[in-house]
Structure formats: C-alpha cells, structure tokens
Design a protein that fits this description.
Length: 88
C-alpha cells in the first residue's frame, strides 16, 4: 500500500510547480554532464559562459547545478571540469 501511495504522489508532483522544477533541473544536469564529458573537448574544461548558455540558466543556477553534479572550478580560470585537481 505504501508503494502505491508513493508512486501516486510522485506522479502528482510532476504536475505541480515543484515537480516541473525538479524535472527541469534534472534535464539541465544531464545536459551539463554531457557538455563536460564531450570528447570534442579533450582537456575536459568548459567555460562558465558556455555552460550557462548551454542550459539556458543564469550563472548562479548553473554553478549550483555543477556543484551538485560534483564538478569543480578551475583554479586558474573561469572553467569547470570533472577532472581531479593536479597534484604537485
């Protein structure tokens, strides 16, 4: 019974503003991940402006989503990557 209720509530959330926001952010995260893992960029870095325009969001939202994905900002420029920092 609990599973059916949870499934029904999840379905209803899709039709609420919160549910639509969650789905939209999920799509944005998927797009950001694809952009950072794109093989055409062998260094693995993308600029904040590219990522922001790629998902159609403002800078603050883009950076929040990138951090949620586990991406990190470059130490030397305004770029993001999934690569770990270089160790000396």
């Amino acid at each position: 019974m609990g599973y059916v209720r949870e499934l029904f509530e999840g379905f209803l959330n899709i039709f609420t503003a919160e549910g639509r926001r969650i789905l939209h952010e999920r799509r944005q995260k998927k797009r950001l991940k694809a952009m950072l893992l794109d093989k055409r960029f062998p260094k693995g870095y993308r600029s904040t402006s590219q990522l922001t325009s790629g998902i159609g969001a403002d800078r603050e939202a883009t950076e929040r989503l990138l951090l949620a994905l586990g991406a990190r900002r470059s130490e030397t420029s305004d770029e993001w990557t999934f690569r770990p920092p270089k160790t000396p």
